[in-house]
């Protein structure tokens, strides 16, 4: 997901972690990660950091990261330092890095640049993209199944999010009579506005909410838990926020994705351009189900997911 730019100090840390086994031969030397905010947000940034740990553990390479690289100047300085440290694979943890990397790719031909979304331009630039619609669809099905008031809410960061469109379709497929109330925050991190929308939804009788913004979803789920209202988690498996609140989560396994990209790069098979990842790549899944979700229904959802992996068709298409 794209993260917004913010002002902050640059923090440079190097991970020298012990690893079992011998270094593997290949193209990968050292890896760098640029994060627009922090790795301690327990959602997006943290998942990127976990990806670095996986790469380090698998390849026994040095891994570097910088937080608060939230401007072109900061990115240029970070890449310059990474280059001196022998880094030849850099991940930009957000959409904003795509335009920076398209420019820097020409200056650093020996480094491969990877960011989210955007459009990659150059022989050493790649963007990775989650196919979000399916995860939203299956999350919407669970919401449609569990709503008692037949009123479901979506608090989206932006109206273009494919997972939001998928969620709306999933609710409609499972519960055609349900009313879905949608609010758009126009930010990944505006907790104040998101909480205001949550209050409005609670007052209107909504009993399941999908907070589709990784900067505010934890805050919203905590509020919903206090009010006894269900939630569908977003980006990470958020069942730990309350198994009687979080019915399931739409999970993007950024750590697994980063490991896959590093593997391809090490083998010399990483493609440039725009790459798409989905359930079949094991980088998207539903999280743990709440015990409140009937086991038979859990199996039904899993069946639909398996069919989607095989056919690429969502349940509303499978039945046509």
Automatic annotation (TrEMBL):
User: Which segments of the protein form a coiled coil according to its record?
Assistant: none
The record's subcellular location field reads:
Cell membrane
Keyword Nucleus belongs to the record = no
Which Pfam families does this chain map to?
Bmp (PF02608)
The way this protein sits in the membrane is described as:
Lipid-anchor
**Classification via InterPro entries:** BMP_lipoprotein, Peripla_BP_I, PnrA-like
Q: Where mainly located? A: membrane
Q: Which GO terms describe its cellular component?
A: plasma membrane
Which keywords are on file for this protein?
Answer: Cell membrane, Lipoprotein, Membrane, Signal
Q: Which residues form the ABC transporter substrate-binding protein PnrA-like domain?
A: 29-318
Q: Does the keyword Transferase apply?
A: no
Give the UniProt family note: Belongs to the BMP lipoprotein family.
The protein, known as: Transcriptional regulator
Q: What is the lineage of its organism?
A: Bacteria, Bacillati, Bacillota, Bacilli, Bacillales
